[in-house]
Amino acid sequence: MFASRLLQDLKKLLYLKLELTWNLFVGKLTLYKDVFPPALAPLLSFIGIPWKRLYRSHCLSCKASGSGRIKLPSKEDMMEDIKSFYATLEAQGVSKRYTHQMGITQFEYNDWLASQCGCSGTEEWRKEMYLATGVRKRAHPETYRDEWEDHHLVSQVYQDFSLYVSKDEIL
């Protein structure tokens, strides 16, 4: 039984090596939801850019799928999702070079990942603050960190943080 399982895993690794070699040759790596290679999920997964919430969600997603707590779609369904994603990008005129530049859709992706792991999604104040900072950054690239126009959001942050820590720890 163990030898049979090991042989299956070795075949999958060989297939992955061939797939990775070909895909890297043509300049892309096919991953379901930017994490799982359909041929080897959940045995192998790729943790993406270490960007706080995204990185955490990727790690939790890998942990949950590896332990069997969440079930990934079939290989065929993952490939169909990937094809659909690339077709959407192509229809929007987005170059494959910018595949991982999510823009405003990052919140939808982050919330989807969080829901898969049983975690809460992105807080509204965080989304609003991110978008307001983006506008400010484009308008005032040299001083956007120094001059804030979203003080009303800061009070929401304090209110949210107060649910988890005492007021003295926040200030």
UniProtKB/TrEMBL annotation:
Superkingdom, natural source: Eukaryota
GO molecular function, one term: oxidoreductase activity
Keywords: FAD, Flavoprotein, Oxidoreductase
InterPro entries: FAD/NAD-bd_sf, FMO-like
Name listed for the protein in its UniProt record: Uncharacterized protein
